[in-house]
């Protein structure tokens, strides 16, 4: 038996819709079909054939044919098309409408469209009331120039938020984002990263295990072995905050910094940098502030490593070298690569420099290999003390005593007036110097000293060769 188009035939749904809290029941109306037939000998379902139209509250479903079962389920076939008043459309080959859960299970070249946003996948579930789309097979999501691929996800057309997981890949022009799990808020252009992710955005590479990125402000927070690297430099740490628009960054925990990045505040430390200067470290303890500049900075626990040219300064105490390591726990600093240290007007050099700090002030210092000290006599002359190794003792951050051991040599000037200058040249195995207010007050030659005292106004037996000073860098 067959029956022609039937109108006004209603079925009532009940139950939650993917978390729906409303108690209103979803009504489905058979708007029309070319043929509606039922044969109990063949099936316990009514069959709708040709131009099938179903009413779903504010939506209309059309298809080529459908079955309506006695338990209220609808099974629809071929050219399935759902349109809603909001403009949302769904295309598929097959779908099942279940009144118990008020959802549509859709499969077969599924395409969901909401405004400029579309989802293409083999199958999905769509909430009639909640407007939630969920998929568990590889999907392609398109919005403008952005294309997203993921293995599973949920999208709400009410909130315009997408949750995607399982080898997520986003491509937009030359940008690429790869993540295990993320969320996108289409309204405020916010990207939320839940698991291991890599972002390649406008020439920058950002890596993290979790984070939030504002696409409009180009600003984000990232954590879990987080880093950002671009042509300007590198900023890495346990967590970082980056503003690409302002070329600024902040890092916490075990950090690595080089180039343009970054500014870091962590307790009493500040690390900052710009495209025109080195990375800068400022450590504050009481009234004493220690500043360091370098091309690259790495912090691992209590260890701080600076490289690529290091300059530091604490009051009248300063220095430079190719690299520096600082054990923050023991306050021990090693300066390598043609190191130079200045204390007031005194200049000290050696192959390697080791320093012990107390409240950011120098307490002990060792110059190992080719040690040399220049201490001013007047505006044009420097006392010179050199040897194999040198030990220096400081008091209140000022040089107090120096011991030179091994192959010691001293060139010491005595200035009575402008026209009467004498030079004392001596060698011995051990030289001891005492300083007061930054000036040499006493020199003691120990262990078989040899030397002579001559007036510089007379013709000297040998030229007096004193090492030239190294220009002190600005910090």
Percent helix range: under 10%
Classified by CATH, the class of the largest domain is Mainly Beta
Distance between the termini: 96 Å
Count the domains: 3
Structural class: mainly beta
Q: Indicate the overall shape.
A: rod-shaped
Task: Classify the fold: give the CATH topology of the largest domain.
Answer: lipopolysaccharide transport protein A fold
Counting DSSP E segments of at least 2 residues, the number of strands comes to: 41
Corresponding CATH architecture of the largest domain? Sandwich
* Major sheet characteristics: 41 strands, antiparallel
CATH superfamily membership of the largest domain: Lipopolysaccharide (LPS) transport protein A like domain
Residues in β-strands, percent: over 45%
What report would you give on this structure?
Helices cover 0% and strands 69% of the residues. The chain is mostly beta strands and 475 residues long. A hairpin with a 2-residue loop joins strand 21 and strand 22 (233-243). It has 3 domains: 1-137, lipopolysaccharide transport protein A fold, CATH 2.60.450; 160-259, Sandwich (lipopolysaccharide transport protein A fold), CATH 2.60.450; 314-475, lipopolysaccharide transport protein A fold, CATH 2.60.450.10.
């Amino acid at each position: 038996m067959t029956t022609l188009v039937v109108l006004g035939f209603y079925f009532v749904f009940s139950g939650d819709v993917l978390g729906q809290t409303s108690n209103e029941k979803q009504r489905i109306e058979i708007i029309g079909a070319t043929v509606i037939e039922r044969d109990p000998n063949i099936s316990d379902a009514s069959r709708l054939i040709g131009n099938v139209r179903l009413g779903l509250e504010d939506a209309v479903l059309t298809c080529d044919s459908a079955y309506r079962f006695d338990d209220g389920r609808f099974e629809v076939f071929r050219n399935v098309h759902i349109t809603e008043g909001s403009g949302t459309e769904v295309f598929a080959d097959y779908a099942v409408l279940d009144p118990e859960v008020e959802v549509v299970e859709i499969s077969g070249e599924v395409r969901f469209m909401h405004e400029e946003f579309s989802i293409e996948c083999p199958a999905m579930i769509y909430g009639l009331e909640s407007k939630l789309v969920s998929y568990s097979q590889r999907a392609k999501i398109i919005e403008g120039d952005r294309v997203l691929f993921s293995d599973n996800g949920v999208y709400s057309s009410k909130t315009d938020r997408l949750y995607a997981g399982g080898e997520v890949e986003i491509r937009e022009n030359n940008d690429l984002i790869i993540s295990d799990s993320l969320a996108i808020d289409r309204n405020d252009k916010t990207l939320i990263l839940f698991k291991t992710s890599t972002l390649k955005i406008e020439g920058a590479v950002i890596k993290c295990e979790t984070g939030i990125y504002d696409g409009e402000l180009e600003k984000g927070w990232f954590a879990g072995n987080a880093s950002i690297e671009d042509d300007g430099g590198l900023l890495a740490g346990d967590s970082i905050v980056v503003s690409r628009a302002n070329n600024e960054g902040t890092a916490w925990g075990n950090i690595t910094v080089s180039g343009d990045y970054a500014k870091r505040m962590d307790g009493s430390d500040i690390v900052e940098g710009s495209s025109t200067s080195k990375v800068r470290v400022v450590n504050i303890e009481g009234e004493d502030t220690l500043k360091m500049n370098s091309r690259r900075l790495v912090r691992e626990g209590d260890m701080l490593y600076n490289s690529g040219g290091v300059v530091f300064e604490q009051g009248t105490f300063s220095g430079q070298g190719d690299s520096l390591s600082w054990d923050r726990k023991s306050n021990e600093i090693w300066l390598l690569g043609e190191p130079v240290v200045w204390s007031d007007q005194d200049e000290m050099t050696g192959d390697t420099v080791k320093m012990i700090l107390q409240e950011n002030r120098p307490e002990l210092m060792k110059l190992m290999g080719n040690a040399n000290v220049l201490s001013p006599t007047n505006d044009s002359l420097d006392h010179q003390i050199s040897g194999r190794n040198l030990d220096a003792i400081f008091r209140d951050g000022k040089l107090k005593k120096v011991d030179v051991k091994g192959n010691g040599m001293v060139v010491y000037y005595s200035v009575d007036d402008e026209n009467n200058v004498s030079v004392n040249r001596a060698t011995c195995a051990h030289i001891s110097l005492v300083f007061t207010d930054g000036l040499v007050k006493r020199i003691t030659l120990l262990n078989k000293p040899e030397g002579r005292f001559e007036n510089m106004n007379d013709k000297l037996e040998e030229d007096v060769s004193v090492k030239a000073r190294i220009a002190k860098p600005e910090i």
